[in-house]
Amino acid sequence: MISHLKRGALAGLIAGAVFGLVLQLASFRTPAGNRVLMMQVIGEMQGFRGLFFGWAYHLFDCTIMGTVYGVLFGARTFSYKEALKYGALFGVACWILGGLFLMPIFFGMSLFSPNTLEPIAPVAVQSLIGHFLFGGLLGATFVGLGNRMKRVKPSETPQERHEEEREPRSKAS
Predict the structure, then answer these.
(1) How many domains does the chain have?
(2) What is the pTM of this model?
C-alpha cells in the first residue's frame, strides 16, 4: 500500500507538471474583457495573487489527486490499458468534484454553473478535456513508475546488478 501511495503522489506531481504547462498557456476573457491566465486564477481561488501560488497550489492538488489514485486504483492498475482507462475516469471524476461542485461553491455560484454560464462554458469544456488527459497521464505514469521499480531491486547494489547481467544464464532442461 505504501508503494501505491508514493507512486501515486509522484505520478500526480509529474502529470500535474505537464497539465500545469497547458494551464499556463490557457487564458480566458473575463466579462470585463480582460485576459486572465488560468494558472493565475487557480492561485486566486485560494486567496493568493500571482503565478507562483497558482503553480504551488496546482502541484499540491495534483500530488493529492495522485495519492488518491494510488489508493483507489493502485492494486488494479498493472497495464497501460488499465491505467489509461482508470486514469481518464478518475480525471473526469476530479473535474466533476472540483469544477462542478467545489469551484462554484467557492465562488458563490450554483452547482453545475460552469456548464451553464456562457462566458465560463468554453473554459469548463477545456477543463474537462484537461482533466481527462491529466488522468490518463497520471495512470500511465503510475504504471511506468511501477515497472521501473520492478526492474531495480532496492536491495541490490549497482555492482551486484552488473555482475548478475554478465553471468551466463543456464538453459532450462
Answers:
(1) 1
(2) 0.77
